[in-house]
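Section 3.1: Structural characterization of target chains.
Under the original work plan, the team committed to producing a structural model for every single-chain target entering the pipeline before any wet-lab resources were allocated. The record below documents one such target. The sequence was received from the expression subgroup and is listed exactly as submitted; it comprises 280 residues.
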Amino acid sequence: MKKLGIITALLIIIVFAWFFLPMSANNASPKGSLEKLVLTGSSTVAPLASEIGKRFEALHPNVRVDVQTGGSSRGVNDARTGLANIGMASRALKVKESDLLSFTIALDGISIITHQANPVTALDRQQIIAIYTGKILNWKDVGGNDAPITVVNKSEGHSTLELFLHHFGLKNTDVKAHVVIGDNQQGIKTVAGNPNAIGYVSIGAAEYAASHDIAIKLLPLGGITASVANVLNHSFPLSRPLNLVTREAPTGTAKAFIDFARSVQVNDLIEAQYFVPVAH
């Protein structure tokens, strides 16, 4: 009887191990082998990268994509120093950044925006420069209402600022800003909340906001309508690539993510954010 009891106990242990230990191991395995892919940088690229990341995670359950903003300069620096697996930059790499590699995932433009209720429908190059350098202070001087102009500028480290300054031949010290903002959404909210404000943001972000009843409008530049369509046909004068940046030729999960982000599999995500896909 004692021998039978021991055998019974052993059988119970074996059955328990058979049913429960594999289940525990299977549950622990994905967590134990979880791989984190860190992307930092451009606030223009970040929302798109987040959406691409979610789809990538669905196809790769053991990968978590962590997207952080901070501007294109941060993305470039973090990629160079290894703080991020992949940097995000809403511009082409500079000559001094030629040690890095860039991979274009979409195209975008930069648009001047005003409040939807502002009667001004267009500004020429010299008027924009005069407004941003404090030489024109009232909307009545450019055909608008008798109201002081609130100049909204981008903060340092954002490629949108760099490209805007370069296009208009300005230095940041020339700009007489009343409000300094970080990402595109902050710029859109600031202008939408102030009928006398003027700012500049991603065409994709602005067109999306305007089509979703946010009280802004996009002004033409050089006589060309600010639109995704004109970025696509290369007629808009202030366009840019949206890039992923690495320190060296990507391998493993980083390469898989970049390849995925440049494939037709994410064109719908790119178009949903009013950017122009590069993969056909």
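Residues 36-106+242-277 form a domain with the D-Maltodextrin-Binding Protein; domain 2 fold (CATH 3.40.190.10).
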